[in-house]
Amino acid sequence: MSRVSRDPGGRGCDDRRVADTSGRTYAGQTADARRHQRRARLLDAAIDALAGNEWRTLTVDRLCAAAGLNKRYFYENFASLDEVATAVVDAIAEEVRTATMSAIAAAVAAPLEDQAAAAVLALVHTLVDDPRRGRILLGGVASSPVLHEHRASVMRGLTAVLVGHARTIHDVELEKDALAKVAPAFIVGGTADAILAYLDGRADISVSDLVASLTTLWLITGNGAAEVARTRN
C-alpha cells in the first residue's frame, strides 16, 4: 500500500474535532484547500486498501496511518469506512461517465461506429490505466455488503446513461421493448467482465484488441436490439 507524508498539523489520533473551517491561510493554502487535500489522501489510501483486498480487515486507524493523517481528519470528511468506500466508487464512476460522454460528444458528427469506438476507448483507458479503479468499480475486489449494493446502484446508473444515449442515436424507445431489460445489462455486464479478464490476465490480449473487440460487440448488440425493437413497435 502506498504511503504519503504525515500531516504536520495533526493532533492525537482520537481527537474527532472538526478542523478549522475559517478562511485563514496556512503555508499559502486556505482551510478549504487543505481539507480537500486531506480528503483526497484518504480516498487514495482507501483505493489502495480496496484494490489490495484489505477492506474487510481495515480500521479507521490503519486508513489514517496509510494516508499520513490523524484520526480527527477522517471524521472531518466521513462518518464510517463504508462512506469512504462509496465515495471512492462514486468518484471512479464519475470519471468513467465524464470521459465516456466527452468522447461521444467530441465524435458526435462522426458515424455511429466511430462514436462507439471513442466511447469504448475512453471507458477502457479510464479503468485499465490505473487497474485499481477498474477492479474497484467492476467488482473485482472484496468489499462490504453496503459497498456491494452501492456499486450495483452505480452500475445501474451507468446503464441508464447508456440506454439514454442509445435511444437518441437509434431514434427508438427501447424501454418499450423487453430487450431494454436485457441488452443494456448484457453490454455493461459483459464489458465489465471483459475488462476484469484483461486486468486479471485471463484475456491475454492487447489494450487495442480489447477496445476493438468491445466496440464490435457493442455495435452488434446495440444495433441488433434497436432493429428488433423497431420491428416490434
TrEMBL record:
It comes from Mycolicibacterium poriferae. Residues 1-19 have a biased composition (Basic and acidic residues). GO terms for molecular function: DNA binding. This is Transcriptional regulator. InterPro entries: Homeodomain-like_sf, HTH_TetR. The keyword DNA-binding applies. Gene3D superfamilies: Tetracycline Repressor, domain 2. Residues 36-96 form the HTH tetR-type domain. It comes from the Bacteria. SUPFAM superfamilies: Homeodomain-like (SSF46689). Keywords: DNA-binding. Residues 1-33 are annotated as: Disordered. Residues 59-78 bind DNA.
